[in-house]
Write a structure and sequence with these properties.
Layout: H1 4-18, H2 23-27, H3 68-71, E1 79-83, H4 89-98, E2 103-108, H5 111-124, E3 129-133, E4 146-152, H6 161-171, E5 172-186, H7 197-201, E6 208-209, H8 210-219, E7 223-233, H9 237-240, H10 246-254, E8 258-267
Parallel strand pairs: 1-2, 1-4, 2-3, 4-5, 5-6
Antiparallel strand pairs: 5-8, 7-8
């Protein structure tokens, strides 16, 4: 892969395209990446939101890999931030939980997604759901703002995961918590996949090892780290054959490498005794 700036531009370009695609097109690929899958549609990673209160089909692009809102312990009146909010799917479901006294802030750095989510919010007449353009490595949010932070299949797209988690820590109120669904690895991917841009935007080659992800969360200062849900992702041969030859597919399928969707919960301590200053000041 290229440097962090190039990766971000790649993701921004790919998800700008996805914003204008139909949900079925996105379901046929890994986290919505525009991978060629013939005429077949596979629900590879996305879970079914359609039975949840607040579900809006216009906001569901089929990009998620979990249901963080189901596990996030959100309460009425909470302020909740959704990282990588896309067309607003999770945000509108969260709004039904926090009610009129709560607030939902979605953050996304893709202009087309911000435009789509704001249009969806306007259609619904919601005045306490806000979508802000911004990079989740430098959130456009004041410190100690959120009771809860959620994210759905987004952090694997971010090159600097340590920086994102330091920002999550900064923005959460003391005693606040997050529930984040994402793609992780158990074992090594085929080396050539690391160079495939579409697979990065598709949440695969950008994923890191599960144990490394948990370590990053712990190093950021979080407590009570819990894996709330875990499921193995199976990629159909029809997609694999676009990137691997028959022999490589056979080796991959017989190997021990797993692509896994995990939903992870953690608390920010009510009191921080680490004697550390704000992450953005440069001393952390």
């Amino acid at each position: 892969m290229k440097n962090e700036t190039d990766i971000k531009e790649l993701v921004k370009e790919k998800y700008g395209e996805i914003a204008s695609q139909k949900r079925n097109e996105n379901l046929s690929s890994c986290c919505g990446a525009t991978l060629c899958c013939g005429d077949n549609a596979y629900t590879i990673m996305a879970d079914d939101y359609s039975k949840l209160d607040g579900y809006n089909p216009d906001a569901d692009l089929g990009l998620g890999c979990g249901l963080p809102t189901e596990f996030a312990k959100i309460k009425e009146g909470d302020t909740v931030i959704d990282l990588g909010s896309g067309a607003g799917n999770d945000a509108f479901i969260i709004r039904r939980v926090v009610g009129e006294k709560g607030k939902v802030i979605g953050i996304d750095f893709t202009d087309a997604m911000i435009k789509k989510s704001r249009e969806n919010a306007e259609k619904l007449g919601l005045n306490n759901v806000e979508f802000r353009p911004g990079d989740i490595e430098n959130m456009p949010v004041t410190s100690n703002k959120a009771d809860v932070i959620v994210s759905n299949c987004v952090l694997n797209l971010v090159p600097n995961k340590h920086k994102v988690m330091s920002e999550v820590y900064r923005v959460l109120k003391p005693g606040g918590h997050f529930s984040i669904s994402d793609i992780v690895l158990d074992g090594e991917l085929p080396g050539k996949w690391q160079e495939v841009a579409a697979l990065y935007a598709g949440c695969i080659s950008g994923a890191i090892q599960k144990k490394e992800w948990l370590k990053i969360i712990e190093e950021a200062g979080f407590n009570n780290i819990i894996v709330q849900k875990e499921k193995t992702i199976t990629i159909p041969d029809e997609i694999l054959k676009n990137y691997l030859n028959a022999g490589e597919i056979d080796v991959y399928k017989k190997g021990s490498t797993k692509i896994v969707s995990v939903t992870i919960y953690a608390d920010k301590p009510a009191k921080d005794d680490r004697n550390c200053c704000e992450p953005n000041s440069g001393c952390c």
